[in-house]
Predict the structure of 2Fe-2S iron-sulfur cluster binding domain-containing protein.
Amino acid sequence: MFTVTLNQSGRQFTVDPDETVLEAAQRAGIALPYSCRAGVCGSCKATLVQGQCSYPRNPPLALAGTSPRQHAVLLCQAVPTSDLVIEAREVTSVEDIARRQLNVIVAEKRVLAPDVVGLVLQPADGEPRLNWLPGQYLDVLLDDGRRRPFSIASGPQASGAIEMHVRHVAGGGFTSWVNDSLKVGDTLRIEGPLGTFVPREDAERPIIFMAGGTGFAPVKAIVEHFLDLGTQRPMDVYWGARSVADLYLKEMARGWEMRAPLRFHPVISDAEQADGLRVGLVHEAVLDDHPDLSGHDVYMSGPPAMIDAGRKLFLGAGLPEDRLYYDSFEYAPDVLAQILAGRAGVIE
Ligand SMILES: Cc1cc2nc3c(=O)[nH]c(=O)nc-3n(C[C@H](O)[C@H](O)[C@H](O)COP(=O)(O)OP(=O)(O)OC[C@H]3O[C@@H](n4cnc5c(N)ncnc54)[C@H](O)[C@@H]3O)c2cc1C
Ligand code: FES
């Protein structure tokens, strides 16, 4: 058993054999950042100040291109082979909220866009309502033990309602079933809250939000949180999609402009389906409008390619890495593990 020390706070926890640093921190009630839990998104990247670790599960793909001199470590995959000292962002705001499993009933199902379904879930009879921070996600637990992660599109509600926006992925087992067969009144089992994509309120800097597709769900929850607080922080909300029809809540987002110093920027990638809206890639629109990001906080959520581009280009535009918060909508951890195992096989 090895001990991990967090350099900044001095907090310590022990790691069982074969356990990752992230799993051990969660067991100890310490929240370190993560999103995909599969080694590909880079949310959990930290600095290894002292000690050594191995990667017996998935290869640490998100460290590709990182110089060894940066001593970077991926907490969701790293298994210590000695005591460690690491420098990682601690997300203490999520630590007080217990994660638990519960049954929920589908209270509403409606078509939001050609391939997006909106769901409202309610705790089943006798289940206490779930608590979470805006921006967090939950896992839907499938009968065979697999999990499918989905962001919660609202803050916690007194009614217990949990809102989700589910995109139907081609060939996807769960999202096809949601699209074709799930009915109002059906029961799902979920676990949550999960994730560390949550509002940071320690500064008055202007904020840029960037969403791609259903990445709008957690961004909506976080923006609504800031609006409810009555924030005076300038906010720019960019939402990218292929066609106008995919911006399924754009009128609601336009309405936010009345409530705060907020500007909403819809961006369409397919020029033939733009219907007069701005055309291009959403991360390029952010950079065209804000070539210097050194004075901003940035929250982004959506498809891995958009997140990857944002990570590289926004840091290049002066954004400090510790002010970039994101959830990458990767496939579920079991699917990624299979894909990566296949790749590792090819490399060997
Ligand atoms: C933190 C987080 C939050 C998310 N939030 C949302 C959200 O709010 N809304 C949303 O719409 N999505 C969200 N996602 C993405 C969502 O979880 C996935 O779209 C979902 O898990 C797909 O499940 P599925 O069972 O339908 O697809 P799967 O059956 O898992 O398959 C997905 C795709 O991968 C392919 N595939 C499966 N196995 C393999 C393999 N071994 N090799 C190669 N390809 C394979 C399939 O053919 C299919 O095309 C989120 C993801 C994360 C990580
Ligand atoms: S790389 Fe570790 S959470 Fe995504």
Summary: The radius of gyration is 20 Å. Residues 151 and 303 are 13 Å apart (CA to CA).
